[in-house]
């Protein structure tokens, strides 16, 4: 985990990034979004990362944020 305030500054450690990446991949797999669809993947990642910054960091919370962002 990073020191307080670091995630808000856009700095994530390797474990944080792995959890974020796993959530993005889960959402994309669920919705059938291909790796080549970068705009959709970036939109989902933005919502997942926003959820992380706001402190909603459970795997289910991250995936839900990504699903909400895909709509």
Describe the secondary-structure layout:
Elements: H1 14-31, H2 38-53, H3 59-70
Helix pairs in contact: 1-2, 1-3, 2-3
Describe this structure in words.
- With 71 residues, the chain is mainly α.
- The chain has one domain (14-70).
- The protein has three helices and no strands.
- Helix 1 packs across helix 2 (38-53), helix 1 crosses helix 3 (59-70) and helix 2 (38-53) packs across helix 3.
- The N and C termini lie far apart (30 Å).
- The mean pLDDT is 88.
Kindly report how far apart the N and C termini lie. Answer: 30 Å
Strand count, sense and barrel status of the largest sheet are: none
Strand percent estimate: under 5%
User: What structural class do you assign from the helix and strand content?
Assistant: mainly alpha
Count up the helices: 3
Kindly give the count of domains. 1
Q: Uncertain spans, ≥5 residues at pLDDT below 50? A: none
What is the assembly state of the chains in this entry? Answer: single chain
Q: Helix-strand pattern, N to C?
A: HHH
> What integer is the average pLDDT?
88
Roughly how much helix do the residues carry, as a percent range? Answer: 55-70%
Rounded to an integer in angstroms, the radius of gyration calculated over CA atoms is 12 Å
- Kindly state the number of beta strands: 0
Q: What does the overall shape look like?
A: globular
Index terms:
globular, 71 residues, 3 helices, mainly alpha
Briefly say what this structure is.
With 71 residues, the protein is mostly helical. It has one domain. It has three helices and no strands.
């Amino acid at each position: 985990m990073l020191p307080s305030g670091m995630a808000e500054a856009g700095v994530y450690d390797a474990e944080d990034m792995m959890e974020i990446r796993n959530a993005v991949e889960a959402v994309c797999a669920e919705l059938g979004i291909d790796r080549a669809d970068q705009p959709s993947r970036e939109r989902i990642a933005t919502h997942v990362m926003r959820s992380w910054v706001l402190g909603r960091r459970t795997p289910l919370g991250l995936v839900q944020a990504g699903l909400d962002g895909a709509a």
